[in-house]
Amino acid sequence: MPTGLPIEFSAVSKTFGPVTAVDDLSFSVEPGRVTGFLGPNGAGKTTSLRILLGLVTASSGTATIGGTPYHRLPSPLTTVGAALEAASFHPGRTARNHLRVYATAAGIDIARVGVVLDRVGLSEYAGRRVGGFSLGMRQRLGLAYTLLGDPGVLVLDEPINGLDPEGIKWIRGFLRELAGEGRTVLVSSHLLSEVQQSVDEVVIIAKGRLVHRGDLSTLDTDVAPRVVVDSPDRARLADALRAEGLEFSDGRTGLLVSSPDPARIGHIAFMNSLELSALFRQRAGLEESFLTLVGGGELADHDEHPAAPDHAEIPEPTLDAGRTGAAEPAPDPDPAPDPATAPDAEGDDR
Ligand SMILES: Nc1ncnc2c1ncn2[C@@H]1O[C@H](COP(=O)(O)OP(=O)(O)OP(=O)(O)O)[C@@H](O)[C@H]1O
Question: How far is the CA of 319 from the centre of ligand 1 (A)?
Answer without folding.
Answer: 12
